[in-house]
Amino acid sequence: MAATIGASTEPSSIARWPYRGPLKAIIFDWAGTIIDYGSRAPVLAVMRAFGALDVPVSIEEARGPMGMSKREHLQAMMAMARIGEAWRAVHGNEATEHAVDRLYAGFLATQAGLLLEHAELIPGCLQAVADCRQRRLKVGSSTGYTKELMDVLAPAVHDRGFTPDALVCANDVPQGRPAPWECLENARRLRVFPMQAIVKVDDTTVGVEAGRNAGMWSIGIARSGNLVGLSQTEFERLGPAEQASRLERAYDELYAAGAHQVIDTVAELPGALDALERRLVDGAGP
Ligand SMILES: [Mg+2]
To answer: Which of 18, 26, 126, 142 has a CA between 20 and 30 Å from the CA of residue 239?
Structure first.
């Protein structure tokens, strides 16, 4: 069947495949990738939202669905057996949607207060973005935060030197990660195609999956991200063996989610982009 379709298509368009480069755009995640080493702000806000309604949750439970839009994140946590049971013990058989609405309202209020405390850039970020500009890549971005939250956060990060060409928020699209819509909306706003010319960079497994689902290259961020979940100081305080084992687990999970490359932090991005460019020249696609 493919041969028939090919035969009826103009030869000039066939000759352009496989796409051999260059890369044209990059889409950065925010927390854990560009800012907020360890992606701690959203975890604290999620934990406080549950705590305020007398259902304390662990840091691991709060980190589990990280990367999804925040309402979907809270929904996923409510669907966890332990949390559902604890919720019912305190609140009875309250309808789940209503419970998620209450949690989400608490989350938004808490998160807004925490954002500016976690707006610091991850070391090497500005140099990595400058390298992307030198490669003539357009710079997009996507986040599980809502537009209302980004209206607070983005200006603070702009003041620190990071200003993407496009910003797609959780409520700009019908469904959060791992759905590809945030990535594809970036491509549309940046006017960039094909998807094989675009790289998604993210510190969560659902973010890596979203890049793959969009047909893009996907780079995972291990050390500064959600899977290690520590500030730079906390990470550096660990012994070498503990550091290595935490990193190994994060690398494994990001590769298992479909990452083409995994790097420690955004500072290592130039080498990863070189590797992807070589794969494109060799005729490989994402
Ligand atoms: Mg993130």
So the answer is: 126
